[in-house]
Amino acid sequence: MSKPKFRRLALIGIGLIGSSIALAARREGLADEIVISTRSEHTLRRAEELNLGDRYCLDAADAVAGADLVILCVPVGASEAIAKWIAPALAPGAIISDVGSTKSSVVRQMQPHLPANVHFIPGHPIAGTEESGPDAGFPELFRNRWCILTPVEGTDEDALARLSGFWEALGSMVEVMDHEHHDLVLAIVSHVPHIIAYNIVGTADDLEAVTKSEVIKYSASGFRDFTRIAASDPTMWRDVCLHNKDAILEMLSRFSEDLAALQRAIRWSDGAALFELFSRTRDIRRSIIEAGQDTAVPNFGRDTKDAAEASDAN
Amino acid sequence: MSKPKFRRLALIGIGLIGSSIALAARREGLADEIVISTRSEHTLRRAEELNLGDRYCLDAADAVAGADLVILCVPVGASEAIAKWIAPALAPGAIISDVGSTKSSVVRQMQPHLPANVHFIPGHPIAGTEESGPDAGFPELFRNRWCILTPVEGTDEDALARLSGFWEALGSMVEVMDHEHHDLVLAIVSHVPHIIAYNIVGTADDLEAVTKSEVIKYSASGFRDFTRIAASDPTMWRDVCLHNKDAILEMLSRFSEDLAALQRAIRWSDGAALFELFSRTRDIRRSIIEAGQDTAVPNFGRDTKDAAEASDAN
Predict the structure, then answer these.
(1) Separation of alpha carbons B145 and B128, rounded Å
(2) What number is the ipTM of this complex?
């Protein structure tokens, strides 16, 4: 479809995702006016210094007034409070969306408070980095990444098409699914990986027999990869854990069961079982690279690049 | 110290590490002659096509004859067989080393078979990528990475200094520690991270409710990072698990205990405990970057770079 155009885009929350949307939406000319709101005065001032929008409001209700597209870009635990806050100020016909990593909870938190004359379409761009805050945003963040929309029953087709077009204009591919399925899929591809990364970094931090300086020195042997994910925003990830509890606990149980079996194979020196698992996981990597969702360069390109630069410098 | 010089360097095994040593040793002029040996005719031919050495032998005993530096670059499970094979052919005074990821087992496997008139000094460069085979090597692999040497009791100081100088000339920083401590440190910084990465990829692969295509499509949300590590060489990692069993099982127990506590915090909505863990893990990331052991660029630089290239192409 052709690029949609909005009169006024209101972004509630201006961290990594909010600031990336602001930059990309302006570059693509998707809104006549971009209004930014966040409850922290300090962050709002920073957003203004970075020239991320056209108008800046501490009051979210002021920001959404007259907006035909409102996107919440906040930790999912804040969704209900914001829905209550902005509901009376929403313009009839406006599209209300979000970018939260859990979707059933967002529907439960927001839907009861929103007026019947707006289009509520939850969303989740599958994109990010380990950084956070308004300085972390960049307009290419969504390019070649999926954005999942989870419309509720009776969603207006035109509104859905306009919101899909918005994300496509930001460079994303759009997929529609129901919110329960979203939460199950994301539990395994995102939430549990983050939880086990935080966990292994915590375990290493607690050891008595291995010093922290050893963990850091020898981290290139595998550990460092986990620390990137474990450097993600703590508030966001606390909220994800609290708001997708059932799916996360289910996937964690499966992970732990499988790990117990693997532990047993190690204890009993079952080399065949280890080799079987360690071989079949290679295919998934290959498919992810073929799907354009990761780089094929070894070590994500960091060492070859760093080394080449170091070498050039000599 | 000044760059050491060897008359003949014999490399037994020519995968990622062996081929990287060959390329770097030649570039730095560390040996008059580089002899390469591997039991696979196909791989040996490939090494020759890549011009990795000066001479190529299927028989490891032929390769080590007259060599003053011999480095085994094979999965650790092959150490004993190779020690038996090459022992009768070793030149008096030669340094015999290896690059295996476990060290106590290598000492147990090799030491009993080696003659008293050679210098046996096990080693482990903390460097690698997810690729394997002779095509995967590149000479910068060891630059700015640590190499751990684990000399046994009574090791000759001169031989240790010469081997340290060799690794320093390849770009590494050298650390000396005993082999038991090495195995404990590597269990937490390398072995357990690999095992849990293989495990989560296996868990995701086994789900009924989430399709493989969904796992691949949405992998940029965290999962893809784990698939890189889980694409590592299955034979090498099977051997690591079988040959550092005690330390790995100890660290896996701690990991599982911590994960159970985290699971409980999620179940009982203990947001404070989650926030505490998710916050303290950030510091370790920062220290790793400050120590030059990982890049500071978000997402290891892959998305910003890919996106910038995609953008340039438009």
Answers:
(1) 10
(2) 0.92
Residues A186, A166 share a domain? no
Taking the C-alpha atoms of residue A120 and residue A13, their distance in angstroms, rounded to an integer, is: 18
Mean of pLDDT values over B112-116: 98
Cβ(B95)–Cβ(B176) under 8 Å?
no
Distance of CA B68 to the CA centre of its chain: 23
Q: Which of B216, B295, B304 sits opposite A140 (nearest CB)?
A: B304
**Which chain B residue's Cα is nearest to A16?**
B298
Please report whether residue A290 resides in a domain.
no
The minimal CB distance from B281 to the residues A140, A193, A202 is found for A202
Kindly determine whether residue B226 and residue A306, on different chains, have CB atoms separated by under 8 Å. Answer: no
A250 touches chain B (CB under 8 A): no
Residues B199 and B304 in one domain: yes
Of A237, A245, A307, the CB nearest to B140: A307
| CA B8 vs CA A33, B157, B204: distances in Å | 71, 20, 48
Claim to verify: residue A133 and residue A264 sit in the same structural domain: no
Mean pLDDT by 10 residues, chain A (314 residues): 91 98 98 98 98 98 98 98 98 98 98 98 96 96 97 97 98 97 97 96 93 93 94 95 97 97 98 96 93 92 56 37
| Structure token digits, residue B278 | 């998710």
User: Cα–Cα distances in Å, from A291 out to A18, A88, A146, A284, B302?
Assistant: 26, 43, 11, 10, 15
Given CA atoms A215, A220, A225, A231 in this order, what sign does their dihedral have? positive
Cβ distance A3 to A165 under 8 Å? yes
**B111: Cβ contacts below 8 Å, ≥ 6 apart:** B120, B152
Scanning every residue of chain B, which has its alpha carbon at the shortest distance from the alpha carbon of A276? B234
Token pair in block for residue B90: 């070793």
How many residues are there in chain A?
A: 314
- Domain residue limits at B77: 6-177
Average pLDDT over residues B214-223: 93
- Is residue A298 a part of any domain in this protein? no
How distant is the Cα of B71 from the closest Cα of chain A, in angstroms? 20
Mutation target for B interface from A17, A223, A276, A283: give the one with most B CBs within 10 A. Answer: A223
Q: What percent of chain B has pLDDT over 70?
A: 96
Distance CA A146, CA A177 (A): 12
Domain assignment present for residue A284? The answer is no
pTM, full prediction: 0.92
Q: Which CATH number covers residue B34? A: 3.40.50.720
Q: Which residues of B touch A223 (CB under 8 A)?
A: 188-190, 193
Asked if residue B216 and residue B161 are part of one domain, the reply reads no
